[in-house]
Structure formats: structure tokens, C-alpha cells
Design goal:
single chain; 448 residues; alpha+beta; 10 helices; globular
Length: 448
């Protein structure tokens, strides 16, 4: 075919395609999953998830498929001290021990025989299955503008004989736990390692403290004093993390209020922001940390790691274990926090607006040891810390700040029991982030 004929055929194809698009045969740009000028919207995601790459009991692609098919928009796999990359084979006997004898067959049924790679003979101790890295299986589950995979790691460390775990979301390279003489040193060292990687790679990375009451490892004072940590899990779906505390230790929400009060009242630093996660490990119906118990809703125009993390860092998200909010607005000029709840038929909603008065003095509750050094005990903090300032019923609660609060946050509690509770008598809830605190923090510390 000479050049003239080739050009004529190309032009004819272009004309036909253009005509087809006008006729509606081909999808127009307006029908794409990512419109040209997208509006702000809520994206649902979980950023604390385990698979067979560490101590989970299902294949990573099967875990991702569960979240994709349950209306999630993004998922971060965060296995302990490992990234889902490189070559990793697992003995089938171990897979059966964790997930049951049907785990491999379930993966085969979903993705096909050609996808599953094995070595050795079935029914022998040498029979093994290759675990697929994220770079390989993400193409099977990601959908433009609908579902996104993000690389993460649970940096699982310890100090003073206690577990110290942090999740890093959207990391590029593995973070090796650095340890420390104290819990606070361990948190600070690992935070610096993540920040170093973020600066070196130019990536937006979110790092948050996991399940502070796991092993009763993290005190409110620890949370308060490590100012470089801005995020923690106010709800974690694992049944073993002592969400409600015990007779000698406060629940996680109380830790949040104590730490935020110390930060704002004494350290003149921003409060903590709260996340909800699954911390999922089991996916075949066994008892334990199952998926679907807690998640975050992030308001962003684009479904990308960078835009999601920027929105989270700006506090434009809420945490939930089932309650859906259609809007969360804080009018700083008027000092009004407004929520709009998406109602379910036959379900009632109670919203508590929680905060600590400006005049509260945490230092007055300190005790001294024999050397005269302060001993802070979270059991000693008074009812002024995290006080219920107001209660509202209905689906459009709001609170007018008086200026006498260090901060205000809202927690919505549904009359509906949680579908898969992680603790006794659990109800569906949603938690907003603290507002009205900026006036108590120097402008440079507030990030303004």
C-alpha cells in the first residue's frame, strides 16, 4: 500500500469514529468514570488490611476483590513489616491452616486456573502457591474512578515490652522498625523514617498510630507528647484491641479527648484526628478481625492516593462504623458545626457534641513521684475532659461554638446494632474531626 492510500484509509477511519461518537455508538468524554471537572464527593476506604503476605488468611487479590465488591473505593494493604512485592511462595498446608481447605479453590474459581501458580505435587508437603505482588494483581481489581489500590505497611515495632504499631499509607519502600527505649521514642523514630521517605521520594504518605489500647500499650500522654503524630485509630474492628478500655484504662475515645486536651491546653499544638479501620485478618467466616467493620469517608475531587491523603491531612473526612453522613461543615466565621445524616428507615440517630472547656487545667491533676516529677494517670482526669457539650436528635444536628471550648467534635450513634460487632452491644457510629481549635494554636503550628 502506498503512502497516499494509507493516509486516505486513516482519514476515513477518523471520520467514521467521529460519526459513531456523535451517533452515540462510542462513549463520549462526559460518560467517562472521571469527568473533566469533577465535583467534590465522598470516597469510602479502608487503610488497615492484612493478607497471606503476613498474618492474614486470604490471597491479596481475593481480599481486594472483597472490598471492591462491597462498594469500597480505595484499599491499602498493610501487612506487618513487609510489602506485597517480589517473589513469595507459601506452602499450601499453611494456607489451609489459616484460611481453610477451600481457600485456594475459591481463588481459582474467581480468577481461573491460568492465574493461580503452584509448584510441587498436590497433597504433598512441598505443594506451594505463589503469592502475587500488588504490581501484578492490581490490574485485575482497579477501576478508573471507582476502585483504587494503595501500597501500605504496618510498621510493627515494640518498646518497653509493649507493641507499637503504625500504618504508613502510600509508601514506596519498606520501613524497617527502628525501636526505642520508650514507647514515645519508638513512635517518633518510625515517624521520622516515614517522613524521610516522603521527602526523598516526593510522595504524599499518611502515617497513623494503630489501636492504642492493644496490649494497653499507648497512654493518652504518649499520644499527646508525640506532636509529629497527627492521626490515630479511634475505632479498630479487631475484637482484641480493648476499644472500651477496662476498669483501669480509659476507652479509645477518652484517650482521644485527653490527648487533644493536653495538646491544645498545655502544648499549644493541634489535636489528634481519628480514623476508623478494619484491621482485617480473616475472610472465610471465622471469628476474629473480619472486614467491613470500620472505614473512612474522604471528601475529594479525584480518586488518587495524593488527593485522598491531602484531604485526610486537611481533616476533610470522617470515620465510621456504619453511619453515613452526607455532609460535614464547619463555618469558622459563624462558629457552627453542621452535620447531615443519611437516614435509614426505622433508625434513630443521637449526636453528641464533645469538647473540653478552655479553663480546664490538666496540670492541676498531675501527681508527683518521690523525685518531684509529674506522674500523669489517665484515670485521674476529670469529667471536664471530653465533656458532652450538647446532644441532638435527628438527621441535621448542629452545634454553635461559644469560644469557650478548646475544641469540639461530634459522634453520631445509631439505634441500629452493628451488623458484625467487635464488642458487646456495639451500635453503628460516625466520628467527625475536632474543629474550633485553631485559635488556641500558633498559626505556624496549625499549618495555616
Amino acid at each position: 500500500m502506498n503512502g497516499a492510500n494509507r493516509m486516505a484509509r486513516i482519514l476515513k477511519t477518523i471520520v467514521l469514529c467521529a460519526a459513531a461518537a456523535v451517533a452515540g455508538v462510542l462513549p463520549a468524554l462526559a460518560d467517562e468514570a472521571v469527568p473533566e471537572a469533577p465535583a467534590l464527593r465522598w470516597w469510602k476506604g479502608n487503610i488497615h488490611t492484612h493478607t497471606l503476605w503476613s498474618d492474614g488468611n486470604d490471597f491479596p487479590e481475593m481480599v481486594a476483590e472483597w472490598y471492591r465488591t462491597h462498594d469500597y473505593n480505595f484499599l491499602a494493604l498493610s501487612d506487618h513489616n513487609i510489602l506485597s512485592e517480589g517473589v513469595k511462595w507459601m506452602k499450601h498446608d499453611e494456607i489451609v491452616r489459616r484460611g481453610g481447605k477451600d481457600a485456594l479453590e475459591k481463588c481459582r474459581r474467581r480468577f481461573g486456573d491460568d492465574w493461580v501458580e503452584t509448584r510441587g505435587e498436590p497433597e504433598t508437603p512441598e505443594f506451594a502457591v505463589r503469592l502475587k505482588p500488588l504490581s501484578e494483581f492490581r490490574a485485575l481489581v482497579e477501576e478508573r474512578g471507582k476502585f483504587l489500590m494503595i501500597q501500605g505497611e504496618e510498621i510493627s515495632d515494640k518498646a518497653e515490652g509493649k507493641p507499637v504499631h503504625l500504618n504508613a499509607t502510600n509508601i514506596e519502600k519498606l520501613i524497617v522498625p527502628l525501636g526505642g527505649k520508650t514507647v514515645r521514642e519508638a513512635i517518633e523514630g518510625n515517624l521520622r523514617a516515614v517522613e524521610d521517605q516522603a521527602q526523598r521520594t516526593g510522595r504524599e504518605i499518611l502515617v497513623h498510630l494503630n489501636h492504642p489500647n492493644f496490649g494497653l500499650a499507648i497512654t493518652a500522654e504518649d499520644l499527646a507528647e508525640v506532636l509529629s503524630e497527627r492521626f490515630f485509630e479511634v475505632y479498630n474492628g479487631h475484637p482484641g484491641v480493648k476499644h472500651l478500655g477496662d476498669a483501669d484504662h480509659p476507652g479509645v475515645e477518652a484517650l482521644w479527648d485527653i490527648a487533644s486536651t493536653i495538646r491544645l491546653g498545655q502544648l499549644k499544638a493541634p489535636p489528634l484526628f481519628g480514623l476508623a479501620t478494619d484491621d482485617s485478618h480473616v475472610y472465610h467466616g471465622q471469628a476474629g478481625s473480619r472486614p467491613g467493620r470500620g472505614w473512612i469517608m474522604v471528601r475529594s475531587r479525584f480518586l488518587t492516593p495524593e488527593h485522598l491523603i491531602r484531604a485526610i491531612k486537611a481533616g476533610d473526612y470522617y470515620a465510621t462504623s456504619g453511619v453515613t453522613l452526607s455532609d460535614v461543615r464547619y463555618d469558622a466565621e459563624l462558629g457552627v458545626l453542621r452535620l447531615a445524616i443519611e437516614p435509614e428507615e426505622g433508625v434513630a440517630y443521637t449526636t453528641q457534641f464533645i469538647g473540653t472547656p478552655v479553663e480546664y487545667d490538666a496540670a492541676s491533676e498531675e501527681r508527683k513521684d518521690k523525685e518531684g516529677q509529674p506522674i500523669r494517670s489517665t484515670r485521674k482526669y476529670s469529667g471536664d475532659v471530653g465533656r458532652v457539650l450538647a446532644t441532638a436528635e435527628g438527621i441535621q444536628p448542629q452545634y454553635q461554638l461559644t469560644g469557650k471550648e478548646l475544641y469540639v467534635r461530634a459522634v453520631v450513634t445509631s439505634s441500629k446494632a452493628h451488623a458484625d460487632p467487635s464488642y458487646k452491644d456495639q451500635r453503628e457510629q460516625a466520628w467527625t474531626q475536632p474543629v474550633g481549635w485553631e485559635r488556641h494554636v500558633p498559626r505556624e503550628a496549625a499549618g495555616k
